[in-house]
Specification:
By secondary structure, this protein is mainly alpha-helical. It has helices at about 20-25, 30-35, 40-50, 65-75, 90-100, 105-120, 145-160, 165-190, 195, 205, 210-215, 215-240, 245-250, 250-270, 280-290, 305-315, 315-345, 355-370, 380-400, 400-430, and strands at about 10-15, 15-20, 50-55, 60. It has 20 helices and 4 strands. It has a 4-stranded mixed beta sheet with strand order 2-1-4-3. The longest helix has about 30 residues, at about 400-430. The two termini are about 50 Å apart. Belongs to the potassium channel family. G (TC 1.A.1.2) subfamily. Kv6.3/KCNG3 sub-subfamily. One of its GO terms (cellular component) is voltage-gated potassium channel complex. Keywords: Cell membrane, Cytoplasm, Ion channel, Ion transport, Membrane, Potassium, Potassium channel, Potassium transport, Transmembrane, Transmembrane helix, Transport, Voltage-gated channel.
């Protein structure tokens, strides 16, 4: 610790005192307490705690003392449970204040917290809402130079990033959703035989952007949609704070993947022209046009359900990798055994569907994840017994990581729900004003 004197420090939490050495605070499991080690001045200390006594080297926190006692039991013994006769949401608020998350709770308490949050649709964020001054109400009177321009940029960013932040953001989100729906309808309709029959063109001609195709209704609609998506992406890039971070965001990458194929297809058509030697590019153009299906993922900007799915996959990638490892190991074992039982033991009753291990892998993966297609099945008694074991093993293996993914999904849903409700409150204030 770079501030204060004495070999030890005292934490006063709601009247209960705890004494620690300076070195213990450096790697303390609670983030708020460990931040005291890097404080250089009394002002830095007061940003972490509520009051400080220089003579006693005592740091005061106006928090629930009994809740902190249970949190200290977690620090010492590694088990965190709810305080009896205390609201789960209040204790969860204390956990977030000290730097803990719902995953630190024991399994039984995690289920209680998930059920309570599902009933109340409440989420306590670990960070302060954006746009609120760091110093609280006292900092409202101070505006640094350029604050008006920064406020305007922040409002523009919220308009394009948060559909519930204002009336303009809701109108913009509605228009964007309509463009996505129209583009998807045109894409699906363009693959119908009835759509192509009157034009009497080949697949290569269908994939090329000629002057005639652009003047067709489908070409005009597609060009308008691309123009809207391009303008939206450019404006969002201009008003973004960090341009590098903007490019690295998954949804922005999806936007680029959905927009770029159109311009690449136009350029390839311009360069290839009518040269028959270059018509092989028609396959590439068709692939690029099909990449417009990524526009569906653009709806994730406006629907909490899709955002929750993406955030859950991002936070549970370890569990997803573990699930894939389980399936791959089981697939390798069962495919080798099924190939041996169906095609390697009895030469008189060979099952040609299991002629190789890769062919048996298809049967294993279908049997473990679904009820099977029925295109191939074992015919020997040992093979059928192995098939039953394979199906049961698939159910068990798929169910093992589901609990972790479920808890992460619930937490992500409440987090995004709270974020949406916070911007909805600002929208209500805008209506009142």
């Amino acid at each position: 610790m770079n501030f204060g004197r004495g070999p030890s420090v005292v934490l006063n939490v709601g009247g209960t005192r705890y004494s620690f050495s300076r070195e213990v605070l450096k790697d303390f499991p609670l983030r708020r307490v460990s931040r005291l080690h890097g404080c250089l001045s009394e002002q830095d200390v007061l940003e972490v705690c509520d009051d400080y006594d220089r003579e006693r080297n005592e740091y005061f926190f106006d928090r629930h003392s009994e809740a902190f006692g249970f949190i200290m039991l977690y620090v010492r013994h590694g088990h965190l449970r709810f305080v009896p006769h205390m609201c789960e949401l209040s204790f969860y608020n204390e956990m977030i204040y000290w730097g803990l998350e719902g995953s630190h709770l024991d399994y039984c308490c995690q289920r209680r917290l998930d059920d309570r949050m599902s009933e109340t649709c409440t989420y306590y964020p670990a960070e302060e809402p954006p746009g609120e001054p760091a110093g609280g109400p006292e900092g409202k009177g101070r505006r640094p130079p350029g604050a008006e321009g920064g406020k305007w940029l922040e409002r523009m960013r919220r308009t394009f990033e948060e559909p519930t932040s204002s009336v303009a953001a809701q109108v913009l989100a509605t228009v964007s959703i309509l463009f996505v729906i129209v583009s998807m309808v045109v894409l699906c309709a363009s693959t119908l035989p009835e759509w192509r029959a009157p034009e009497n063109r080949s697949m290569e001609e269908q994939s090329r952007y000629t002057a005639e195709s652009v003047r067709e209704p489908s070409g005009i609609i597609e060009a308008i949609c691309i123009g809207w998506f391009t303008a939206e992406c450019i404006v969002r890039f201009i008003v973004s704070k960090n341009k590098c971070e903007f490019v690295r965001r998954p949804l922005n990458i999806i936007d680029l993947l959905a927009i770029t194929p159109y311009y690449i297809s136009v350029l390839m058509t311009v360069f290839t022209g009518e040269n028959s030697q270059l018509q092989r590019a028609g396959v590439t153009l068709r692939v690029l046009r099909m990449m417009r299906i990524f526009w569906v993922i653009k709806l994730a900007r406006h629907f909490i359900g899709l955002q929750t799915l993406g955030l859950t996959l991002k936070r549970c990638y370890r569990e997803m990798v573990m699930l894939l490892v389980f399936i791959c190991v089981a697939m390798a074992i069962f495919s080798a055994l099924s190939q041996l039982l169906e095609n390697g033991l009895d030469l008189g009753t060979k099952n040609k569907d299991y002629a190789s291990i890769p062919a048996a892998c298809w049967w294993v993966i279908i049997s473990m994840t679904t009820v099977g297609y029925g295109d191939m099945c074992p015919i020997t008694v040992p093979g059928r017994i192995l098939g039953g074991i394979c199906v049961v093993s698939g159910i068990v293996l798929l169910a093992l990581p589901i609990t972790f993914i479920y808890h992460s999904f619930v937490q992500c849903y409440h987090e995004l729900k709270f974020r949406s409700a916070r911007y909805s409150r600002s929208l209500s204030a805008e209506f009142l004003n």
